[in-house]
Design goal:
- There is one protein chain.
- The chain is of the alpha+beta class.
- The protein folds into 2 domains: 4-154, 3-Layer(aba) Sandwich (Aminopeptidase); 167-254, Immunoglobulin-like.
- It is built from 4 helices and 13 strands.
- Strand 3, helix 2 and strand 4 form a beta-alpha-beta unit.
- Helix 2 packs across helix 4 (136-154).
- The model is unreliable at 159-169 (pLDDT under 50).
């Protein structure tokens, strides 16, 4: 992620003493709540390398707390959109026996990605729980799913590097909407490299088009579209820009 810019801060955290009572994550979550920190979402990775039958089944533990349900929807969306190849099962209400639960206590949205409980690690809490027992393919896919979800939520975009040419160059690009999450109005910026026909559409998580924000010819340069979602319910939405051979999708969260 270091080669990319994001609309939101990404924080990687390792918490100790989970088995003794979630002390590490509870400490962090309590301080964050006391300081009034805004947390877009917590993705807890717990036991993500065991899959004895290679079926790629995994569980997503979520709840009705904060935007937890929207987070689990985002995970499923990323898995499908990028053909990661996992078979997620959403558990709602999910288990409270891991670090994500500390954030539920403080009303933060949080989820846990974990191996399928129907195929539980045979070596759990044993000295035989070694790297040799890893299912590397499953571990890779679980890691990719987590990183893809983080990138989607954080609004990852390519970092600005050293200019490679003297003249300004404008390429096709679709920016992350702002604010995100939003209620009920959000702004979407995009840029075009030439005069072209443009469509900017919004879809719900079932793939149904719910709004057309732009459907017209636009000149080269930067443009802005506004979506007023006053008449729509809370949830995760996908917006897609199409121009010539360029097509790009991003997701946004409406929270009322």
């Amino acid at each position: 992620m270091s080669k990319y810019q994001t609309s939101y801060t990404i924080l990687y955290a390792l918490w100790d003493r989970e088995e003794q009572g979630l002390y590490g994550s509870a400490y962090y979550s309590n301080i964050a709540s006391a300081l009034g920190d805004s947390i877009l979402g917590v993705i807890n990775l717990d036991m993500i390398a065991w899959d004895s039958n290679d079926d790629m089944a995994m569980d997503i533990h979520t709840s009705s707390t904060g935007n937890s349900s929207e987070l689990s929807d985002t995970v499923c969306f990323v898995n499908t959109t990028y053909n990661i190849g996992l078979l997620p099962v959403v558990k709602n209400p999910g288990s409270e026996a891991s670090d994500h639960a500390s954030f539920w206590v403080n009303n933060y949205g949080a989820i846990m990605l974990i191996e399928s409980f129907s195929d539980f690690n045979l070596y759990y809490h044993k000295t035989s729980d070694l790297l040799s027992a890893f299912n590397n393919t499953f571990y890779y896919k679980m890691s990719k799913l987590a990183l893809g979800t983080i990138a989607t939520l954080a609004g990852v975009r390519e970092a600005t590097g050293v200019a490679l040419r003297d003249e300004p160059f404008i390429n096709y690009a679709l920016s992350q909407n702002y604010p995100n999450p939003f209620n009920p109005v959000t702004t979407i910026d995009y840029q075009l490299s030439s005069l072209t026909s443009v469509t900017l559409e919004v879809f719900d998580m079932l793939g149904r088009r719910v709004a057309i924000l732009v459907d017209d010819a636009k000149p080269a340069g930067k443009h802005t579209a506004i979506w007023n979602a006053s008449d729509y319910s809370s949830g995760i939405y996908v917006y897609r820009l199409r121009a010539e051979n360029y097509s790009q999708m991003k997701i946004m969260a409406l929270i009322k």
